[in-house]
Sequence to fold (312 residues):
Amino acid sequence: MTAPAADVGADPWLTAIADDDLRLLLLIRHFELKVLNLFGRGLINGTTHACLGQEYIPVALGPLLGERDFVFSNHRGHGHYLARYRDPHGLLAEIMGRRGAVCGGVGGSQHILRDRYLSTGVQGQSLPVATGVALALKRSEPGRLVCAYIGDGTWGEGAVYEALNMARLWRVPLLVVVEHNGIAQSTPTALQMAGTIAGRARAFDIEHHRFETADVNEIRDETEPLLKTVRDGAGPLVLEFATHRLGAHSKGDDSRPPHEVRRAREQDWYPRYAARFPDQFAACDAEMRALIESVAAEVAARPQCDGAGEPR
Fold:
């Protein structure tokens, strides 16, 4: 469906988006809230890391990535998976260890493998692998690319720099998406990173583009021509998103002072979009809330995985 007419008098940071994009944003938001709720009730084992506040990044980029492109995700990757597959049943089953899980219940929240999608909880691990895969695509599947999601904290890993060096030397089709939320687990970026991400990309002669908006339309429009150059052989690209992590690093370990948490919530796209486009938002929000409630009830009623990682 087409997006509603823009309300030019409010919040220029956001423009009206199509219903399908809004539904996907809200699907991810309510999925993450449900996972945290289930964890708090003791129905999920292990750990989980919500992408609350960052949902718009994979939603904006999703249509620009083809089925034959690779996506490498990270520990905070539920939104990345849902934006690619729109499969809340399979992902929640994986997290809860129930039948029908994406990886038979052996991957949990952080380690997902499906087709050309892979997530890992080890910071920096994905970039060297993504570089190698991008080199293979360059040789055997011209026009395809690899998208690797990392955070600002991951720039403290040496493997990142080794990978960027080789990616630029080989001019591989690699898109590095940096979700820069200003904190690495419990350490503010200012206390653990000297210089800037732009400067680090420049040191390797890699193109860099930074977004400070949550506007899905703007992000998509500006990124599309940049990705064409990557596909056409220009080499790697770093997209940096100045974003905000609304919740704790995982469940309750949030060491940020109250004013920092408040500032993050003030920048959240969810209430801002609801205020600007109330009718569209209310309908889509109610639909996705109901869907996730249904998904959670159905998945929770399934039997446990047998532990053998049975195929989905």
Q: What stands out?
A: Confidence is low (pLDDT under 50) at residues 1-10. The radius of gyration is 19 Å.
